[in-house]
Design a protein that fits this description.
Layout lengths: L2 H8 L3 H8 L7 H14 L13 H4 L13 H13 L4 H11 L4 H14 L3 H6 L3 H19 L21 H12 L4 H6 L5 H17 L4 H11 L7 H8 L13 H16 L4 H7 L4 H18 L2 H24 L8
InterPro entries: DUF6620
């Protein structure tokens, strides 16, 4: 599974993206409802409503409940993600239904059908010209809700004590010094600049690592990554700083091409399956583990923000390249010794 599939799977959108990219636009409301009703009559056992009962005649009638698709589509996507994540818990699902003005499971299916019809309307197409553009909006909204629900990176106040300096060394100072070490710098020279000796540095590192390991919100890890990436070391320091700041606006600014990125990603996976050293594989591509992390940070951000735009053009290109290099390295894997 490549980076893009990992992102989509984490958001529960992988199958939906695959279906949307291979499915023609929806038919009229009447035709859709009629086809669904026929399918239900033909095979009641295949109904995916978990026994709740679907009312296809109701679904053919527009009802947006409390949602404003035209001006706040993110709220609908947030509701969809939260409801579907909690569908099997009737109490939680009921609470969410109440929050969003949903009367019953049948009503929820009606709202979803209404949204599908709206998604093909002139109003929707004016904002989201292709299905991929709308899917990108869903990815963005879902990612935001998922991070909020897990409190990822959002616990600074609660972690005030764990974010405090260790023996006078802040998280930012420690992260930037670690970046210097990772880029081949002299650890003794780097820590001397912090006013600590090697014994103190080892204690400081152990404590910061311990704090990160017990932080289930990943707030400390994300802060560390931000400062590590903005340290300004390595051949891809600029790209790393951009990613740390949440800026990856144009593919023209990518640290390496998408083709090169995907090849290294696949080569890493193929080499790992043979027990080859990851650092050695990266070295064959002229890259250190730190630099690969910088490159990965930029492409991860860019793909999460652009994968489905323009009817999934980036997703399709990434997938094609992934398949191309999987074939290349699968052939190479037949040999006992792959040369990367």
């Amino acid at each position: 599974m490549g980076l893009l599939d990992t992102i989509l799977s984490a958001l529960g959108l992988r199958k939906q993206v695959q279906d949307n990219l291979h499915t023609p636009p929806v038919a009229s409301a009447t035709a859709t409802a009629a086809a669904a009703a026929v399918a239900a009559d033909d095979d009641d056992d295949d109904d995916d409503d978990d026994g709740e009962g679907r009312d296809f005649a109701l679904e053919a009638v527009d009802d947006r409940a409390s949602f404003d698709f035209d001006n706040d589509v993110d709220r609908y996507f947030a509701a969809q993600f939260r409801i579907e994540q909690n569908w099997d818990d009737e109490d939680d699902r009921g609470a969410l239904f109440g929050e969003y003005g949903i009367r019953s499971p049948q009503h929820w299916y009606q709202v979803k059908a209404t949204f599908e019809r709206w998604s093909q309307s002139p109003a929707a197409r004016a904002k989201y010209p292709t299905d991929g553009d709308l899917m990108q909006a869903q990815m963005d909204a879902t990612q935001k809700v998922a991070m909020q629900s897990m409190n990822i990176g959002n616990q600074h106040a609660a972690l005030a004590e764990d974010l405090a300096p260790v023996e006078g060394v802040t998280l930012e100072q420690w992260a930037k010094a670690q970046a210097g070490v990772a880029s081949g710098g002299d650890v003794n020279q780097l820590i001397a600049g912090l006013g600590v000796d090697k014994a103190a540095w080892d204690r400081i590192s152990a404590e910061w690592n311990a704090r990160m390991s017990r932080d289930t919100s990943f707030t400390i890890t994300m802060e560390y990554s931000k400062h590590f990436g903005s340290a300004g070391v390595g051949q891809f320091a600029g790209a790393s700083a951009s990613a740390a700041a949440g800026e990856a606006a144009s593919e023209a600014d990518a640290p390496i091409t998408l083709e090169r990125y995907v090849e290294i990603e696949v080569a890493q996976s193929a080499g790992s399956s043979q027990g080859k050293d990851a650092a050695g594989i990266l070295k064959s591509f002229g890259m250190s583990p730190m630099e690969w992390g910088q490159v990965g940070g930029w492409w991860s951000l860019y793909m999460s923000k652009n994968a489905m735009r323009n009817n999934g053009e980036l997703h399709a290109r990434y997938t094609k390249l992934h398949e191309q290099f999987e074939a290349k390295y699968a052939t190479a894997s037949a040999d006992d010794d792959i040369s990367f």
